[in-house]
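Dear Dr. H.,

I hope your travels went smoothly. While you were away I took the liberty of generating a structure for the chain from your last submission, since the lab meeting agenda had it listed for discussion. I wanted you to have the full record in hand beforehand rather than looking at slides cold. The sequence, exactly as received, is reproduced here:
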Amino acid sequence: MDKKQMDSELALLEIETLVSDFEAVQSIKLPVGKYYYVETKAPIGFVKNEEKHYFEVKDNQINELQVIESTLKNERPVYNINMTKQMEFSDTAMNKEAYKDVVFGIYTRDDTYDWKGNVAIKYDTLLATSGIDEEGHLVHTPELPVGNYYIKELATNSAYKLDEKEYDFSIEQSNDKAVIVPINEGKPIKNPIETKQANTKDGTVKFVLNYGTTYIKETKAPLGYSLSPEVVKVEVNDDGLFVNGKKVERSEDLLYSIIYKDSLLPVIQTGAGSDSMLFIVAGLGVLVSLIGILEYRRRNRNKKSENTSE
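The corresponding predicted structure, in token form, is as follows:
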């Protein structure tokens, strides 16, 4: 090794390692010369600052202690929670603004500690709530420290089933300035349409109505009856309850009835000397897509039909 190489090695000699928290630290007394310091490990939850911070101890011909102050700043990574809520659409759920009724909550899964090892946030603490945009993404997420969390749907449009599943995710230490945190392994969280089965004895079903616009349609008719094509639009706003655009009044117990009429399906009876029509009469059992605090009542157009073969 020649002198030039030796001088270079000596010039890059590590003089001291300092360990700092959030308070200032001091180095040993340094002789005249040029120096730099660099961070080798960042605090938990921060990005390591890899910049070299240069300073110089000058020979000012005075026997005095020189104090050189320098500040190192750490940035927090930006954690982008990648979640997509997928609303199901059909002829019974045509409200393109249903996503505006969706609210998610972000909770701590475990105790979260501060840098001193003290519990800063207890487990199962609700940290923030957020709606979703038209694409199904969260519109607001808090700045979360390193730890384990879960996200859960708190509210949805009344045309849809509330998803009560808890979706876990973690905020991990990273030196990347931007980190994508996938929810549900990056797969869309589907929001199926709310369906209920009617009472098989009287053909009624009740459901709760929230503010907004909802649609009701029969999705399965009883045996022997044709499926009704009618779609009922229900709106609740500050002016009251509207059904298919017309304001209606509710009963004292806050119920309103919607009546669907189904027709009996004809069945051709074949046989000698007979060309009469027979009808199948079946019990009431329907599946309907629901939204509202309404009483949904089925009334059959033809309860019974009697025909005699000649």
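Two observations you may find useful: The two ends are 121 Å apart (CA to CA). Residues 272-310 have pLDDT under 50 and may be disordered.

With kind regards,
E. W.
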